Each structure stands twice: as C-alpha cells, then as structure tokens.
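FORM 12-B: Structure-to-Sequence Request
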C-alpha cells in the first residue's frame, strides 16, 4: 500500500557480450487474489553504461506515471561460469591445489567477502513427467543460489535428458540454499514446472 516503495534489493545478472544488450524492467502490483497489473516498464541499454563504476539512474516509466531509481554497476564477471563436463574447472589437480591454498586458514582474512564457491555438475534427469501431448517433455534445468541464476540448454522430446554441464557460483552467504528446478520449455508460453530440489549449503 505505497506509491513510493523502497526495495533496496540487489540482483546479479550474468551478462555475456553475445546476448542482447537491453535490460528490461517491469513494475507490477499484486492484489490478494494473486492477480498482477502492470504499473510501468522501462529499458536500460547496458552497452551505454560506463564499466567498473556504479551508475545512478532515474528511469521514467514508459506510458505510465512514476519513475524508478536504480544503481547499476557493470563489471567483469568473476567467479560464475558454465562449462562442459569434459573441461570441468576443478578437474586439474594443480588448480585444486591453488584453491586449497586460497582458502587455507592463514589466508582467511585476506578477502573477507571471498568465502568460497560452489561447483555443481548437472548430469541428467530420469523419468520426468510428460508435459506434452506426445508423451514427452522439453526439459531444462535452472540453478539458483541467492540472486544468482544459471540454466542448462533444453533437451527436446526427452524424459531422460542428459545435460552434462558444470556450474560454478561464488558463495556470498553460507546459509544460502541451492535450488535446482526442472522446467518444460513451452514455446512463447511460461515453462511448465517438472520438479524441484533444495539443498542447503551447510548440508554439503
């Protein structure tokens, strides 16, 4: 019940230069019946922003009253990666040794924010729900840790997909929970939910 809401939330998006350069933002309102209504939207051209600095932007909402105040920082992506299983970033013994050295006790206070990272190998799914009329699904897998989100490619018409991808996340809070969700791609429609598992980092 506010016309001047303050959210003060931070989101990290992993932006790659081969993707589209526009950040799309929508403001919506929800009533008690879970009905959503659009209150405005705007776009930010990422390529026009200076690198390695925090940009304070006041963005007027298109065709609607009001504006958004945002801080957007564009910086080189560190710590987050997606790779194939055959080139797993921790497969090299010398790299594992460097990691052990980086997080040894004597280096604990070198960088307080660098508390570690999580590497997840997403191999395959078995006996998924059939979401399509043909008795098949088009599954892909989404991994979320804090506000970081990465996903696999889609394997079409398959209930036993194999992705064989390796995802690496920097850890910002040891109390975070890794959420792994499988969806069925459905063209231009929102994807269908096929299942989910949640893994607290403290249980790893």
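FORM 12-B RESPONSE
SEQUENCE OUT:
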């Amino acid at each position: 019940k506010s016309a001047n809401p303050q959210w003060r939330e931070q989101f990290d998006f992993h932006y790659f230069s081969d993707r589209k350069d526009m950040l799309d933002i929508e403001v919506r309102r929800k009533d008690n019946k879970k009905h959503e209504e659009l209150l405005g939207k705007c776009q930010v051209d990422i390529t026009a922003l200076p690198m390695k600095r925090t940009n304070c932007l006041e963005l007027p909402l298109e065709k609607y009253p009001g504006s958004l105040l945002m801080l957007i920082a564009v910086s080189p992506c560190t710590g987050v990666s997606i790779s194939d299983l055959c080139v797993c970033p921790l497969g090299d013994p010398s790299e594992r040794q460097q990691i052990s050295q980086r997080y040894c006790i004597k280096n604990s206070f070198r960088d307080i924010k660098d508390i570690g990272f999580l590497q997840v190998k997403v191999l395959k799914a078995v006996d998924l729900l059939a979401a399509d009329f043909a008795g098949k699904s088009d599954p892909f897998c989404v991994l979320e840790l804090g506000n970081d989100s990465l996903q696999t490619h889609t394997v079409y018409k398959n209930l036993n997909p194999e992705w064989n991808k390796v995802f690496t996340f920097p850890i910002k809070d040891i109390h975070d929970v890794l959420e792994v969700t499988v969806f069925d791609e459905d063209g231009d429609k929102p994807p269908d939910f096929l299942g989910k598992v949640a893994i607290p980092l403290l249980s790893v």
